[in-house]
Amino acid sequence: DAGVIQSPRHEVTEMGQEVTLRCKPISGHNSLFWYRQTMMRGLELLIYFNNNVPIDDSGMPEDRFSAKMPNASFSTLKIQPSEPRDSAVYFCASSLSGGTYEQYFGPGTRLTVT
Amino acid sequence: DAKTTQPPSMDCAEGRAANLPCNHSTISGNEYVYWYRQIHSQGPQYIIHGLKNNETNEMASLIITEDRKSSTLILPHATLRDTAVYYCIVRASSNTGKLIFGQGTTLQVKP
Tell me, what's the pLDDT at B30? Predict the structure, then answer.
């Protein structure tokens, strides 16, 4: 199993540009999570999907952030327009849904907005 | 989900057991205790979880007190590769998956 795959691994962009982060969950997993990690705020959940449907997006910081999951094997997190304060490591995780199943995290995308 | 309290940092000698404590005094009856760790520059990694009984797997052991208000993660023979931030999280089984990470404990394993 390849695990959770994220791309790109590193992204450097200028303020105001659109940024799209991509995630491929583990095959068979039906829950998908997007997290953001910064030194100031630690690791925080942005949004999660169950069976491709967004369940809780209360962690999404503002309207500049949007996430989609068009099918069970792909999800995107988009920031438009990007700002320097969006600089962080963004992690995607997947799991089986329900019960006590553990989450498997991807390697993360390090985003730098200048 | 109940809040957890962990010491910010701990040291452990290589080859010795590392015992990482976690307080969760407001835990509810349907909430599980989970442990994850994050090695520098990597995504968090699941270690173990339990409800009330002690649990053991190939990575670690989890000891939960009888009143369930605290727990201890035990790495029986710590290696340098176990240096990481360890997160203790409590989550209800009915919760569809949301994990709330605190600041965790930074474990430094020293040679």
Answer: 86
